[in-house]
Amino acid sequence: LLAEMARDEDPRVRLEVAQRLPVDSPLLAEMAGDEDPRVRLEVAQRLPVDSPLLAEMARDADPEVRQVVAQRLPEDSPVLALLARDEDWEVRQEVAQRLREDSPLLAGMAGDDDPRIRWEAAHRLPAESPLLAYLAGDADPQVRREVARRLPADSLALAGMAGDEDWEVRREVAHRLPEESPVLAGMAGDEDLGIRLVVARRLPVDSP
User: Fold this and answer.
1) Of 30, 107, 130, 176, which has the most beta carbons under 10 Å away?
2) Distance from C-alpha of 118 to C-alpha of 188, rounded to nearest angstrom
């Protein structure tokens, strides 16, 4: 009877069936091709993570289905490389959030067209990564702010951001530079009052 109801004309009925079937059911696998994306989404959420069918659903027409696939595939799945180039930025974001810090795929996403993906890369790349230092010159200030939060305090790249056009980036730099840094001392003349206050609080008491 459930097999018949899996082909019901109303997608709400088919969705109920998909929610009840065992994860290894051939009928559930068959429903991966349902015309309604809500049904396919349910299937993607329930298929075993090592199912070849789950990997095939990375090409689903609906981006929400592809997002679920990106969430559920094993970290070492080669299919994540396909999803890292997905046309939908939220799918690519899911991939970036799943990858290990040292993943070459994550490094490649540092050059994504969407600043939200580059932010994810800046957030997750190792602090010593040359790519993180490269992102210090990103066009998007939010990406640069995340870079300033994550670079090693004594890095040349962080010191170089003391002259950033965005005051929030400079403020982050002022908070993170070593107290004895001449770059921090140089920021005492910053045009932004808030940054000068940060410098005043952080400079050593015996600073000239």
Assistant:
1) 176
2) 31
